[in-house]
Amino acid sequence: VIISQACEELTELAETLQAPVANTMLGLGSFPPKHELSLGIVGMHGAAYANLAAQEADLVLAIGTRFVDRTTMKTTEFAPKAVVVHIDISPAEINKNVPTFMSLIGDAKTVLSQLNPLIAARQSNGWLKQVEEWRERHPLTVDTKGTALSTRVVIRHLFSMIDDRTLVVTGVGQHQMFAAQEYASGRRNGFISSGGHGTMGFELPAAVGAQIACPDEAVWVITGDGGFQMTMQELSTIVQERLPIKMAVISNGYLGMVRQWQDLFNDKNYVDVAIHTPSFVKLADAYDIPGMHVTREEEVIPAIERAMMHEGPFLINFEVEPEENVFPICAPGSSLGQMIGVADTACVTRT
């Protein structure tokens, strides 16, 4: 949808059908996240209401998705009640992972432009009411064990403050999933991240490219303390090219997603996940980039405001709860409806 620039056509289709829209992570930015029909991301770390909607739907219209296992989880149990219609430009993607009832081969914008005039408008119905009930019952929640700063809270504040012209670039790991869950910018193609297997260290050089391509727009990097150390030498490029990139470093002292998996699936047997974290504020200062170190929630908004007001690059190091987990999460090999960290459903909950 993003590559074919079919965002308007997708919105028209959703509004005509009065059908909720769930995104893959790389599909964020194709549909307005604040739209009443938006469910955010679906999949391993999808919101409970998005995953439940996929599992209970009677029709799934899939546009430009590969149906990878991070989206569908156990493919044989994905959307078991649904007729699946798949639109994709590549015939190789059809029936590769999920069997389809019907497929349309073509560019998303071309197909939707021809499809939309043929669809009769529908009124809001009981299905949307059910989805809203799930949304109210299962909101995205904070999972901290004490008074330490929450990564989700930091990212939620950031998204509440940026405007719809801001590009957000993330690395790979827990901060990436928190950002994907909380993403709220109305900018088309405003969420840039490394999908598939994921490349740690992607964020800083990708932000350099994004800022050069969009010199009049704000660019925020959301990164972890592990991934940031892989390409932090790009701070030199940022200064040299005078790029006003803002950086939010989420410092928890771990390779967070690997630690979370070892916590949940390996009886908390932590191996090679704790990392040494330097003073990123001092590092930024060495490059003549101003920075702040934040440890409390009341410091978050003032720090972001200061970064936004500064004309050049700015770094904020957020020292957060070390063992906060990203919920929901579906265990590898489970179905999309079996979510850890979600109560009051037919799902697995954390003990």
How is the CATH topology of the largest domain named?
Rossmann fold
CATH H level of the largest domain: which superfamily? Thiamin diphosphate (ThDP)-binding fold, Pyr/PP domains
Q: Largest sheet at a glance? A: 6 strands, parallel
Measured on Cα atoms, how large is the radius of gyration?
Answer: 20 Å
CATH class of the largest domain: Alpha Beta
Content of β-strand: 15-25%
Number of DSSP E strands: 13
Oligomer: single chain
Number of helices: 13
Describe this structure in words.
- The protein is of the alpha/beta class and 351 residues long.
- The protein has helices at 7-17, 48-56, 69-72, 108-115, 126-137, 151-161, 174-182, 203-213, 225-231, 235-240, 256-265, 280-286, 300-309; strands spanning 21-23, 38-41, 59-63, 83-88, 102-105, 167-170, 191-192, 219-224, 246-251, 291-294, 314-319, 329-330, 339-340.
- The chain folds into two domains: 7-137, Rossmann fold (3-Layer(aba) Sandwich), CATH 3.40.50.1220; 151-319, Rossmann fold (3-Layer(aba) Sandwich), CATH 3.40.50.
- The protein is built from 13 helices and 13 strands.
- A six-stranded parallel beta sheet has the order 7-6-8-9-11-10, with helices on both faces. Strands 3-4-5 form a three-stranded parallel beta sheet, with no helix packed on it.
- Strand 10 (291-294), helix 13 and strand 11 (314-319) form a beta-alpha-beta unit.
- Helix 2 packs antiparallel against helix 5 (126-137).
- The radius of gyration is 20 Å and the shape is globular.
- The two termini are 39 Å apart.
- Residues 346-351 have low confidence and may be disordered.
